[in-house]
Amino acid sequence: MEAEQMNNQQALQEHYREILGLLGEDAGREGLVKTPERVAKAMLTLTRGYGEDPHAILNSAKFKEDYRHMVIVKDIDFFSLCEHHMLPFYGKVHVAYIPNGYITGLSKIARVVDSYSHRLQVQERMTLQIKECIQEALNPLGVMVVVEARHMCMQMRGVEKQNSVTTTSDFTGAFNQAKTREEFLNLIHGRAL
User: Fold this and answer.
1) Active-site choice (13, 129, 135, 151)
2) Is 5 a catalytic residue?
3) CA distance 169 to 36
4) Cβ neighbours of residue 136 under 8 Å, at least 6 residues apart?
5) Which of 15, 25, 52, 153 is catalytic?
6) The whole model's pTM is what?
7) 94 flagged as catalytic
């Protein structure tokens, strides 16, 4: 582990130890002795996207190809932390793009989702960031991103609605045409054309 990350982990541990005390707990009791270390490590993992460059991820597997039809990677599982309450939100991301001379490795699309989701986020921004990254890195004829998520901040606190799902979408280029968007939505929801 590099020195900066180790220092960050140590600082986080101390803060979480203090938080346990502020909550009325004894950070020295048996069940909590290692909790500050565990939480610090977890938070560094859950926010590792800050140290990644999503554009570089796509460009690391960018290939010249004449294919000009829709490429879809759907049902990409993700977990993120809402920046308002630092509680998880999770779900699936569906991505489509229409190549314009270049394609990327399919796993790179999922890695871009991971990179943006492993940050403090709001679903709307994450949807936009994924779309913009693919558009900028590959310059396709169009990109569309749909994110479907459950938010623990709505389930565990506040309104406490257990079954609500939030859907966001964003698109460019060829997906401005209703027919192209409809084709993508039908394919991600398993409906035949």
Assistant:
1) 151
2) no
3) 37
4) 55
5) 153
6) 0.93
7) no
